[in-house]
Amino acid sequence: MKVYIDSIGATTVLDNQLDSSLELTRDIDETTTKDSGEAKTFDYGRYTGTGTVSGYVAFDSDEGVEQGISDLTNGDTVVLVYSTEVAGDSDYSTTALISNVSLTFPNEGIASFSFSYQFSGAFTETAHV
Questions:
Q1: Hey, is 87 helix, strand or coil?
Q2: Domain 2-127, CATH 2.60.40 — does that match?
Q3: Where is average pLDDT lowest: 40-44, 57-61, 69-73, 76-80?
Q4: 16, 57, 87, 89: which sits with the fewest CB atoms below 10 Å from its CB?
Q5: Quick one: pLDDT at residue 95?
Q6: What angle do CA 5, 88, 90 make, to 5 degrees?
């Protein structure tokens, strides 16, 4: 899946992606009372998620390292879309905060970046058209 990002008014694929991930988590709240007997009881609480994307550095891209650094330092909320770009497949989207930007400049090889995100708000699934 590719990650698309929108922080400047246009949803654009992040250039030169290598890997991406997303993880959804949900709180589990204890609901045990004195009337519950010997077994504890639980129910679902709120959910959230985190995500990452990594790739090769492209300082000339519209959405890439420079925009990610700007979003992090300015405290901008971004819109993320995870998509296979295949009609009928699911697209996953959410708003998020960039929690980490990492840049690696090796002695030999290609410079790379990594962004980490904290989802903020609802996580939605829609069919790709």
A1: coil
A2: no
A3: 57-61
A4: 87
A5: 93
A6: 45
